[in-house]
Each structure stands twice: as structure tokens, then as C-alpha cells.
Predict the structure.
Amino acid sequence: MIDRRRMLALTAAAGAWPLISRAAEDRAGFVDPFIGTDGTGHTFPGPSRPFGMVQPGPDNASSGWEYTSGYQYRAPRILGFSQNRASGTGIPELGDVLLQPSVERREDFASTYAKASEVARPGFYAVTLADNGVRVELTSSLRSALHRYRFARGGRVWVLVDLQHGLTFRTDRQPVQSVANSFSADGFEGEALRQNWTTRHVAWSAMFNRPIAEVEKLPPRPGDAAPRYLLGFDLGEDALLQVRIGLSTTDRAGARRNRDERGGWDFDAVAAESRSEWSALLGRLRIDAPVQQQRILATALYHLFLHPSVVSDVDGRWRGPDGKLRQVAKGLRYSTLSLWDSFRAANPLYTLLVPERVDDFVNTLLDHGDAAGRLPKWPIWGGETGTMIGEPALPVIADAWAKGFRGFSGERALAAMLATSTRDAQPLYPGDTSLSVWSLYDRYGYYPFDLAGGEAVSRSLEAGIGDTATARMAAMLGRNDLARRFGVRAAGWRQLIDPETRLARGRDSKGLWRTPFDPLVPTSPLNNPGDYTEANAWQYSWTPALHDTQGLIEAWGGKAGLKSMLDSFFFGLPATKGAEYLGQEAMIGQYAHGNEPSHHIAWLYAFTDSPETGHRLIARIAHDFYRDVPAGIIGNEDAGQMSAWYVFAALGFYPVDPSSGAYVAGVPLVRRATITVPGRRPLVIERRGAGERLRSLHLDSKPVRPTRIPHRALTAGGTLMFET
């Protein structure tokens, strides 16, 4: 029988943990991990270290678009607690080694819970499982998860171990291809090959602080290839059980070493260390703003710093996309790189706020390129998913080099960029039409819609982003021949600008325009195959501005033409046709903030004679689509990109051209912000005046061009003054 009074007492005690020292100026206290967990944000409330390998947390379901992180705020039951996940993605993956405790042996270990019992802070999560009579608390080190279970009574209690569970979307294959698991007196360890979004190898090692009294293997569920177990434990009056779990891409030995990287059973100390680490990192950006805005910005930074995720073991080993083990000579290796999203703002923001990690980010891309023969598009757990279009690793590398990062070889980087920009990509799955097929592209200068197989316009436009990045990298390394070659190819987008509509429109292999053509109809490879990726012609026609802003302005007739197109886009067009399609969320006119192709567009008003219109729009987007409630992110958070947009908006500038090493000004959403990065002079950002229009911009009293703020000038520190 569950002692309900004891459970209420445990819940109340846990809810008060930990005490915050005002003297410490604890920035983690502003973070609400529940923001983005209700609706389409797809974030999760479980703990993680910054850029952590593991993120233990509650899973409400094992599949479904709503549960890509395993969690939805309003879901009434918890299946159990798995050890890793991704924040805000559009496809479910990971969710390895699910554990679920219960004071009694039950047929169904899933449990209801009261929302009031649920607590989430950086480095800590807790919930009371009403049906199972147990208070669950979670924390983590960089590579290991630590669970603490407080049962309603002592004596024999149970823990379900589900090795079949995972966050999946594939229905055409068995997610677990092979599995091996063994038990010791106080734990278990094993490894498996899993196939879902990617093919990946996962190993685990778990140790309890009490001996296992009983192991019962459960009958497999229909179609299961991996086992489930019930573990019995005999507890004393304290009714307390803890488990420490390490994961690895390599093998059991790697998982075991990761499990013991912190060691010990002092749960509160581990949680306090995590909170302290978060507070120090979040403290690199401080703003003068109301508490509500402080919470939104701190949580955005928190989400930004969840990924990419460390994937190398304590000893430096990791498994690459070819399945082979590698040894890192120096630094860390990462995965969970949502590059099609993050190259736009998240990666540029890393160069500003966590520069000590950028070289390792790039070396990760280059190591992946060595293993796969080309740079990655969307890797997770060391494997390649091949998701989305274009070659988004290219601008990330060029941007890092342009900003002065030299912890990687420029020649090696250029070689990888050339291979990725010239070799046809091979499909990772049947029907993959998002590939860079350069033999086709070079023949026509764009992807003909009758030959490309889908998303032809979007793929053509994004090819220019990568080509410009490659050209810039070549120029910086003195390879002017390559710079000219890829600079010419980068202009291919011009062939798709329809002179009648001035929009990017599909052309076939004969050069004929797509007919009929409705620029308001969004298309997506998931639900409506066509020429665009999760967008329509109006939304994708702004893509050239990501690498050739002046070229697009010229194509549209100069400043006046750009303003006319912007005004129509935001204020002059009817509603999107088929708004239920993917990517049509958080709308202002045709602007869809819920998806990344729109993220830079409001900032383009800076290139017109009416920049204040853009300032007002940016403030409106930040106000309407970012709130300090669980439903406070509209559209997938996408591993930091949605959050990065908000942080840049608060600071008053944005990387419209993300491989250029420069930013475009808006107007800060706060009166004052201070960026303090170890080893750098602080950068103070101030807004003076109450006007809506940016009238002047100065860095330490020297004028700065609002449409080109140099990154290196900002990192030198000083005061960036916005006069309005």
C-alpha cells in the first residue's frame, strides 16, 4: 500500500531544493526549463550539463511528432525516464535505457502524476509518480545520469528496465537490430545497434547504490528485439535507491568510464555543481530588463547551450558516421548538430558567447567529413541523418575562419568544403531527394524541377549559401582561382528569379517556368511535394540575402524595390494557402517565424530607407512568439536556433549573412546588456533614446555601419551605443 502522506511530504521537501544565494547572483534561477514543452517547441524539462552527452528525463510516449523530445507538458502519464534526447527537433531520436521505479509490482508501470509535484531547474528535475508511490529526482554530470528514488515505504521495491524503448518515428523497421545486456550484483551494462533517424551504436553501464535482490525477465512485447526486466531491491526505512548511468557511442568500457567520471552518490552535490556551471555560463550575458524578459532570455540561452552535445568519451574515444572508433587527441567531439537551422544564428552566437568551443565544433565537422567523405548535414549520436537540404556545414566553417578561429587547419577545412561542394551525395534512404547532386546542378546552374525529384527551388537557392562560403574560404586562404569558380556558381540563384513575379520560381530542364504557379502555396517533402522546403515561394525568395544581400537588392530594383517586397510580404498579402502544412507557424503576413527560412527577413529593412519598420517587426516577433509559459515557443526550437534569434534580437544585431563575419543592426530590446567572456574585454551594449528608428551606431565613440558590424570589433570589447 502506498503511504500517500509520506509521498506528499517527500514532494514538498524536494520542491524546496535547492536554496539560492542572492550574493552569488545565480543566473540559473531565471531559467524555466518548462518553456517550450507545451505544443510545438518540443523542448524537455530534464537536466543536462551545458552541451551534455546525457539528458535524463521523463518520457510520456515513445513515438509521434509531438513527442520528439519524449515529453509534452500536458501529457497525463509518464512511461519512465530515459537517459538522452534532443531539444526541440522535428524528428524523435535517442531515448535510450528507460527506467521506471515503483513501490509495487504492476502490470503497467506507467504512472499518472500531479503537475504541482513536478519541478525543473537547470541541473535538476523531480516528479512524484502517484500510481507508483515514488518521488523521482534526476541530475547529471557531463556524460552520466544520476537518479534518486524516494519510495513511499521500505522493503521490496521494483525498477523496470526497458531496453527496447526509444524515441522513434520509423514504422517500416525494427528500431533495435541487436542487443546484449548482462547483470552484476549491483548493476547492468550492455550495448545495442539501433536504426531510426540514423543507424547508431549505443552502450550503457548502470550501477545502483544497493544490491539487486531479484532479476525477472519480462515477456517481449510484439515485435520487440530487446528485453525488458524487473529488478527487485530490498530497502531499509529510508526507502531510498539511487542509480548512476553512463552512455557511450563506443562500448561498455566507455560507458563504464563515463558512468564514473564524477563518481559517488552525493546527489545534491552533483546537482549543485550543475547549477553552478549553468549559472557561470549564463552569466556571460546579463541584461537590464524586467524579470519576465530576464526569464525569457535566460531560458533562451539555456536552450542554446544544450546542443551540440558532447559525443566523445572521458578517454577521448567516439564512434563516427562510418561506425569506426576514433580517438580525439585534443578537445571534445560533438553531435546533435541541427545545421540547416543552426547555421543561421545559433552557430554565429556560439562564436560570440562560447568561443572556446568553436574550434572543437569545426574539428567535429572535419572529422565527420574524413569518415563520411563529405561534411555532415544533420548528425546525431555520431551518425548522419541526411536531414534537410543544402550544405549547411559550409557557412559554419567559413564564418569561424573569418572571425579568426585558428584551432583547425584551414587547408583541411577547404579540402572538405571542396569535396562536399563537388561530389554527388549518396542517398541515405530510398526516395531521398534532398541531396546535393552537383553533376545535375553544374549542368544547368540550378536544379530543374523535372529532374531534381523535389524541393528544386529551395535546393538551388541554398546551394548558393554553400558556394559563397566555399568561395570566401578559398579567398581567405589565397586560392583566388577557387574563389572565382565558386563565386560564379553562387550566382545561380539569379536564373530562378521570375521577372513577372520577382519571386524564385521553378524551372524545368528546358528552361520553362513552373506552370501553374501559386506563390502562396507552401510545399513540403512530408505532406505536399513541390519546389520548396517547408515554405512557399514568397518565404523562400529571400534566401539569397543569406549570402548575396546586395545582389538580391539589385535584382529587386534597389532600396525602394526591396522595401516594396518587404511591405508586401509582411503587410500586403492574403493568408497562406494551406497553413496547416509544416512550417506555417507564428505568422505575420507571409512571415513564418516558426520555421528558419524566414528568420532573417525582418532584419532586411536595415537596407531600406525605413529601418524603423524592421525594428518594430523584430520587437513584435520577440513579444508575440516568445513568452515565459510552457507554450512560450511557437515552432520547433531546433536545437538552439529559435532561442538564438531571440538573443540576437535582445542585443540589437543579427547575422543576416552568416558566413560573412559581420552583423546587421536593429535596435536592442533592452536598455543595457553586457557580454563578459573569459579572456576578452567586456562588450557593453546600450540603447539611448526612446525613438523607434536607429539614428546612429557607435563602438567606443567610433561610427559603425549598421549594415555591417564586424564581429572582431565586438569581441575587442568596449561600448556599442545605439542612438534612437
Remarks:
- The mean pLDDT is 95.
- The chain has two domains: 4-282, 294-723.
- The first strand starts at residue 57 and ends at 59.
